[in-house]
Design a protein that fits this description.
InterPro entries: MethylDNA_cys_MeTrfase_AS (IPR001497), MethylDNA_cys_MeTrfase_DNA-bd (IPR014048), MethylDNA_cys_MeTrfase_DNAb (IPR036217), MethylG_MeTrfase_N (IPR008332), MGMT (IPR023546), MGMT_N_sf (IPR036631), WH-like_DNA-bd_sf (IPR036388). One of its GO terms (biological process) is methylation. It is built from six helices and six strands; from the N terminus they run βββαβααβααβα. The protein is of the alpha/beta class. It has two domains: about 70 residues, Double Stranded RNA Binding Domain (2-Layer Sandwich), CATH 3.30.160; about 90 residues, Arc Repressor Mutant, subunit A (Orthogonal Bundle), CATH 1.10.10.10. The C terminus is likely disordered.
């Protein structure tokens, strides 16, 4: 059974929960820990993960990167992750990391990028299961018509993140 060490921190989008093996991160979720207990329990059972141990100060590099991201000083994350999912899901999640900061792609763009234009629905399902919010930027995926589509943490959070990135991107160009 894989270990699960968890910590939380406050951010401009509220509480963020990080879980991993103590070194590498399995998931990053927004919300209060109590609101995620059911999700964590199902996720643990699916991936053969031990009972969580709460560790204050864990994942300091990831937390530092998130804080720099929210301050507009970081546009690409580098903390270590361990992606637990199907090979197709991992392929989609890796493709999400290719979306440039401050830009949006459509589900169709993702399907084209993985070489399977007919997999739009499967791509949507994989994006919905993205375990590492913000750092694997599923918030950058929009509908073909430019509309904001579902986001596990809510459309208000998605709007906030997209606005944050476009405002930060503008600022980065102004100061370069």
């Amino acid at each position: 059974m894989k270990p699960l060490k968890m910590t939380t921190f406050d951010s401009p989008v509220g509480n963020i929960i990080i879980g991993g093996d103590g070194e590498s991160i399995y998931f990053v979720k927004m919300g209060e820990l109590n609101a995620r207990d059911e999700w964590i329990e199902k996720w643990r059972q699916k991936h053969d993960i031990a009972e969580p141990e709460f560790v204050d100060g864990a994942y300091s590099q990831a937390i530092d990167e998130f804080l720099r991201y929210f301050n507009g000083n970081l546009n690409q994350f580098s903390f270590e992750t361990t992606l637990l999912g199907t090979e197709f899901q991992k392929q989609v999640w890796k493709t999400l990391e290719e979306i440039p900061y401050g830009e949006q792609w459509t589900y169709k763009d993702i399907a084209k990028s993985i070489g399977n234009i007919k997999a739009l629905r499967a791509v949507g399902g994989a994006i919905n299961k993205n375990p590492i919010s913000i750092a694997i930027p599923c918030h950058r995926v929009i509908g073909s018509d430019g509309s904001l589509t579902g986001y596990a943490s809510g459309l208000d959070h998605k709007r906030f993140l997209l606005h944050h990135e476009t405002a930060s991107e503008h600022w980065l160009h102004q100061t370069s």
